[in-house]
Amino acid sequence: MHLKDPRQSAKCPHALGEVVFMTTCALLCGADDWNAIEFFAHERENWFRQYLQLAGGIPLHDTYNRVFSLLGPVQFRELFNTWVQYVLIDTPL
After folding, report:
1. Are 64 and 37 spatial neighbours (Cβ–Cβ below 8 Å)?
2. Whole-model pTM?
3. Is the distance from CB of 36 to CB of 26 less than 8 angstroms?
4. Residue 45 vs residues 15, 17, 22, 34, 86: alpha-carbon distances, Å
5. Of 13, 23, 37, 59, which residue has the fewest beta carbons closer than 10 angstroms?
6. Largest Cα–Cα distance of the chain, in whole Å?
7. pLDDT at 49
């Protein structure tokens, strides 16, 4: 199962997976709004570039907002829960 991208691909310089990954990292570190997520990503851009291509650079806060407003919340929750279970089960304590 994968997260379906509801955006028009020709108009999207940012990869969906990268936007979701940066958002997840920011939220886990305490970001609580779109501006904080953008700030977090800019502050850690060098770290993110080790793992992501960031062909479109760091998204603006409006981009994070727009992307998440288009995602199906039920599908995202199910995938996120599956990922968390995978991490908890497959990662030794």
Report:
1. yes
2. 0.88
3. yes
4. 15, 16, 10, 16, 26
5. 13
6. 43
7. 98
